[in-house]
Write a structure and sequence with these properties.
The complex is a heterodimer of chains A (418) and B (311). With 418 residues, chain A is of the alpha/beta class. In chain A, 54% of the residues lie in helices and 13% in strands. With 311 residues, chain B is mostly helical. Classes of the chains: A alpha/beta (418), B mainly alpha (311). At the A-B interface, α3, α4, α18 and α19 of A face α12 of B.
Chain lengths: 418, 311
């Protein structure tokens, strides 16, 4: 009998302890689309960190469609009134979710973590809805890179270009030597990636902001835009005719194999060179896209947090937001993914090329105003406007549309999509 | 069963209610069995058509909104360049796809119907593409038609260095590659339809015509093909809906490209509603597609079904 009582007391005490613990630990359900090798590894780091603090992580990975499928799932769950705790959403779409009034306010965590000092203002602005933090940035990718095969340049007797005039000169020589000057992927987002880099270079940071961030019709249909489109038309003369529909990594492999001289693509292209066993400097080099050395187009992935009722889940949510911004996670995650931390003042040590160059220009351009959100990678304008720009650019690339007509269409299609 | 009682004498007490209950169940059974599917069809097909119609009259962007905004989205749709490209492509693709499939299918069926040897094996070969999904067909044809990998390269390697066949990467011609792949996939099926129809024609009519001295082409033109009319009807309906809902084939084969030169309304709708947060705009395009289908199908069904009941 006594044994029984003591057992009961013990069980009771355990329950109380468990109850107390429960009120601090909670569950986060995280919707994301990082499912490929390096990315999945990077997410696992966050999961580990959260579990170390006693929270549970319920993974909700939705692969496919470059996040399109995940967004469809997220929308249907939000409409059903049952959103996950956190979801991978970036750029102006954060504002759209803010408009729905479903996002949790993270100001408390942000103040404790001093986010305003740690993040460049342009990046912090993306994470805020009406002045309050509602999202946590995870990483930074740089878009305006040019990847080149120095061997091909040597064979053609050309010099790796830093201006579009030099580019044209080099491309002529490369073409004459029987190589493809530019490895081109004829998919709308890749075409838009090159287009925005040209706009940044030819038009300058100020113009880029007006045209592709503010989507100002006067800037879209301007003499400067015509000049940018003329440059794009010039570049298009140096691609091969089989480009339509080509995936970006196939274009990269043309540079790796020495069939093509260069490719314009974000920093993730490096993974292809590394996977092919190439060494930087000898087999490939990376430079900013011509005339963009003063600029930095960024692509920042982030998590938005939804309002949850459960106290434990709220705690877990705050812990997740805090952990994402802490140096441990920022370092491990970005080394794995090949991007750089969005948090300023981190050690460069664990990173290698070209992430290391990306670091310095990230800091430098944050001061000068050359740090700008990428339009092609969903950082600058709403999806509808981005789609309208994509349509005109891809149509320009795949037809003989004149530059001035294309500029007019840019303005009218963007206005109609707004 | 509880209502009927058996007495000691073995005679059944009022048997009528038992039988009527059974009869009632028997009568209701088909309705009960069909009720869930009917209900599901009403909600998930017709209900959602109405819902889509409603959304198409709103300014819905990322998530549905229910405040009506009139023809706002339709005005935008009809001033959108890409929409007209998509519509034109559907006309080209649908028209050629249906016409070529029917002509080719009929020709194959007539040739197979000549009591040839190994007909079974040949029939299977022609019907086989039907067993593949459009994803597989699209991927295979993408490689075959790619100038750098497939046909063009093969012929050039054989020595004809001037040979070009670059429809897949040519914005003017890309939609025709979709026709090629679609026809390859579906004409065997149409052949099977026509073959079944040909086998169903009474031999005595043909014999009578032969006795009257009609030539073989004339017999086909005047007797056999006209009597295949119901098969034409089925073929057009089936091919028509394949053409209008064609999505996977286009996505895999050309991705709507180069640019958006081979976009069709189905891919257009998906792009705008789901990847560009323009739900209302996408819904408007879906409704226009729906009305287009109705405009073609209803008169056709009406005329075909009426003649049938008259005859």
């Amino acid at each position: 009998m006594r044994l029984k009582w003591s057992k009961l007391v013990l069980v009771g005490m355990l329950m109380v302890i468990a109850g107390v613990c429960n009120s601090f630990a909670g569950e986060v359900e995280v919707l994301h689309w990082w499912t490929s090798g390096g990315e999945a590894k990077s997410v696992a780091v966050l999961k580990e960190l959260l579990e170390k603090e006693g929270h549970t992580w319920q993974d909700m990975a939705v692969a496919g469609g470059a996040g399109g499928n995940a967004m469809t799932v997220l929308k249907s769950r939000a409409v059903a009134g049952n959103p996950p705790t956190a979801a991978q959403v970036k750029g102006p779409q954060i504002q759209q979710w803010g408009d729905e009034g479903v996002l949790a306010n993270l100001d408390e965590v942000a103040q404790a973590g001093n986010w305003d000092q740690l993040l460049p203002k342009v990046v912090a602005d993306v994470m805020k809805y009406e002045g309050n933090y509602v999202a946590v940035p995870v990483n930074v990718h740089k878009i305006n890179w040019m990847w080149a095969n120095p061997e091909v340049f040597r064979k053609a007797g050309a010099k790796v270009p830093t201006t579009w005039a030099e580019f044209e000169e080099a491309a002529k020589k490369i073409k004459a030597a029987g190589f493809i000057p530019v490895a081109w992927g004829g998919q709308n987002w890749q075409e838009a990636t090159v287009f925005e880099s040209i706009v940044l270079g030819v038009g300058g940071a100020e113009f880029y902001k007006k045209a592709l961030v503010d989507a100002d019709p006067a800037a879209l249909d301007s003499a400067t835009m015509v000049k940018c489109l003329d440059t794009l038309r010039m570049v298009l003369q140096y691609i091969d005719k089989d480009a339509p529909g080509r995936d970006w990594n196939l274009a990269t492999s043309m540079v790796i194999q020495g069939k093509a001289a260069m490719q314009f693509m974000g920093d993730w292209a490096k993974g292809e060179f590394v996977a092919a066993g190439k060494t930087y400097g000898a087999d490939y080099v990376a430079l900013p896209v011509p005339e963009t050395s003063e600029g930095y187009l960024f692509n920042v992935d982030s998590f938005i947090m939804f309002q949850v009722k459960d106290k434990g889940a709220q705690e877990a949510q705050k812990a997740m937001a805090r952990l994402i911004m802490e140096p441990t996670f920022q370092e491990v995650f970005n080394v794995n993914k090949g991007s750089i931390p969005c948090r300023l003042g981190m050690s460069h040590k664990p990173f290698d090329f070209p992430a290391i160059c990306s670091f310095d220009s990230f800091v430098a351009t944050a001061q000068t105003g050359g740090l700008l959100p990428s339009m092609a990678h969903e950082m600058a304008v709403f999806p509808a406007v981005r789609g309208a720009i994509f349509d005109v650019v891809t149509n320009f690339c795949n037809s003989n549309l004149a530059s001035d007509k294309a500029a007019k269409r840019l303005a009218s299609e963007v206005q109609s999509a707004m | 069963m509880g209502t009927a009682k058996v007495t000691d004498s073995g005679a059944t007490l009022p048997a009528a209610p038992r039988r009527s209950l059974l009869a009632m169940i028997e009568e209701l059974l088909p309705k009960i069995v069909l009720a869930p599917t009917t209900l599901a069809a009403i909600i998930f097909i017709y209900g959602f058509i109405l819902w889509t119609a409603w959304i198409s009259f709103t300014k819905s962007r990322m998530l549905p909104r229910y405040d009506l905004a009139g023809l706002y989205q339709y005005v935008k749709l009809f001033t959108n360049d890409r929409w007209w490209v998509a519509c034109k492509n559907l006309l080209i693709f649908g028209g050629l796809f249906i016409a070529i499939c029917i002509v080719l299918g009929l020709l194959l069926a007539i040739l197979l119907d000549q009591k040839i040897r190994a007909e079974g094996a040949l029939r299977t070969i022609y019907l086989y593409p039907m067993a593949l999904s459009f994803i597989v067909t699209g991927t295979a044809w993408k490689w075959i038609l790619n100038p750098g990998l497939g046909l063009e390269r093969l012929v050039r390697q054989m020595g004809f260095t001037d040979f070009t066949f670059d429809w897949l990467v040519n914005p003017e011609m890309a939609i025709y590659t979709v026709v090629i792949a679609g026809v390859w996939q579906s004409s065997g099926f149409v052949m099977a339809l026509f073959l079944a129809g040909l086998r169903g024609i009474d031999d005595s009519i043909i014999k009578a015509a032969q006795v009257d001295g009609a030539s073989l082409p004339r017999i086909y033109r005047r007797i056999i093909i006209p009597s295949l009319r119901p098969v034409f009807f089925s073929a057009v309906i089936i091919l028509g809906h394949i053409a209008i809902k064609s999505f996977d084939l286009v996505v895999v084969l050309t991705r709507g490209g180069p640019g958006y030169a081979s976009d069709v309304p189905a891919t257009f709708m998906y792009t705008f509603a789901f990847t560009r947060s323009r739900l209302g705009f996408g819904a408007a395009s879906a409704m226009v597609m729906f009305c287009g289908v109705m405009a073609i199908i209803i008169p056709y069904l009406y005329s075909e079904l009426r003649t049938k009941s008259d005859g």
